[in-house]
Amino acid sequence: MESFIDGYGYFAPVAIYLILTPTLTKLMLSESRGKSFAKHTIKWFVVARMIACVYGVIWTAVAFGLPLYSSVDGLSEAVKESIVSLGWMLTHSVYFYAIYASVITVFIAYRIPKLADNLAKGVDLIEYLGQFIVPIIPFLMVAIGAYVTILPEVLAESLGPEMGNVNVNTVAILGFPIDITTPLGMILLYVLSALLTGFISGTWHAGLLVLVKRAKPDFSLKEYFSVYWIKVYPMLWATSSEALGTPLNLHMIKKFCPGIPDEVRQFVVGTGSFLNINGTIINVFLMTGLVASILNIDISLLQLLLCMPIVFLIGYGVPGIPGELILFGGPVAISMGVSPELMPVFLGLFIGLQIGLPDSFRTAANSTDECLCAIILNKKY
Predict the structure, then answer these.
(1) Which domain holds residue 167?
(2) Which residue positions in the chain have pLDDT lower than 50?
(3) Is residue 44 a part of any domain in this protein?
């Protein structure tokens, strides 16, 4: 499973390039409404991310009983670190390199129509291959279960002796106290926090379903869940990767909504794999509240609100692969005023507890959201 996850770093940039390049090329070569639609789609994703940040903050405050206000430490340092981190990602991340290469290729293809036609075949091939991924889903789900069984050992190895600085016995989620002094208690906390992630992401998805029903009154919930959702969600849940699930997602959206033009479907899914990650954004705040509760760190609703710009910006550097919350750990910890002696423990827990089930729920929500977004945005197109 570790080897499989390591391979995502090589797959994701290639997938982003192969999907985004021909899609952008189609829009550039289409009538003027294509360019306008691209701007509208990106703006729509930006607004949705802002709403998701607020949504995640409110749910975190409710789940962990956070006060409205407490002292705020380290905000200026957090902003500075987030800018430095984002700058590093813009200049060092292979995923951003893929985006840059895609944009450059589009400008070249704009002047060479034959090249544009050949690029279109690349995304068609990815969609075709998507249907062959389904048989490996059961094996990936078994791997997720295996990870949960060894979670205590994983956390003990990552935290080491630093855990001696922490004195905590129980953590309450939605008022339900959990004794985390035993491996079983820690697993229970992990599973409940993952289920909470799934529930909140599900309510977000339900909101999009309402918007789809308003935009398309003849939309059938029964067909949506039986034709599209049940075929895509297990794959995304098992792999925890928007990038790896993109071929299947493109294939199933085309099957479920054949009336959506290719340029709309491919652009929404291609850009949505790294712009429309609202399940991940919500989970950043939930993990922050969870780890702060474990370590007895006092945080407030106001602190989480002040942390929103940091989460919002760093979210654009998330590549859509397992463990993507790692990028948020340091800046978030500083913005929450975590002391230097607890910083290694905070980061160890933040990184360890977000892998596996939470990753599965947020990833599955991210990519299935794209189907609904494509239906909503197609009306504008």
Answers:
(1) 51-91+129-380
(2) 1, 4-5, 32, 72-73
(3) no
Compute CA 113 distance to the chain's CA centroid, rounded to the nearest angstrom.
Answer: 35
Reading the block at residue 220, the tokens are 């059938």
| Both tokens assigned to 18 | 């192969």
Residue 260 corresponds to which amino acid?
I
Are the beta carbons of 137 and 238 closer than 8 angstroms? yes
Residue type, position 322, single letter: P
The Cα 15–Cα 241 span in angstroms is 12
Report if residue 324 sits inside a domain.
Answer: yes
Q: Which residues pair with 177 in a beta bridge?
A: 172
Residue 29 lies in a domain: no
Angle formed at CA 141 by CA 290 and CA 154, multiple of 5 degrees: 45
How many other C-beta atoms are found inside a 10 Å radius of the C-beta of residue 140?
20
Let me know if residue 20 belongs to a domain. no
CATH number, residue 251: 1.10.3860.10
CB contact burial 177-210 (16+ within 10 A = b; e otherwise): ebebeeeebbbbbbebbbebbbebbeebbeebee
**Cα–Cα dist 335/316, whole Å:** 19
Question: By three-state DSSP, how is residue 173 classified?
Answer: strand
Question: What angle do helix axes 262-275 and 8-29 make, rounded to 10 degrees?
Answer: 140
Kindly report, residue by residue over 175-217, the tens digit of the pLDDT: 888 887 777 787 888 889 999 999 999 999 999 999 999 989 9
Task: Give the Cα-Cα-Cα angle 201, 220, 381 (nearest 5 degrees).
Answer: 80
Counting the structural domains of the chain, the total is 1
Residues in the chain: 381
| Helices and strands counted in the chain (H then E) | 18, 2
**CA 297 – CA 302 distance, rounded (Å):** 15
pLDDT digits (tens, 9 = 90+) for 310-335: 888 777 766 555 667 777 887 788 87
Residue 217 burial (C-beta neighbours within 10 Å; 0-12, 13-18, 19+): exposed
Q: In angstroms, rounded to a whole number, what is the distance separating the alpha carbons of residues 292 and 18?
A: 40
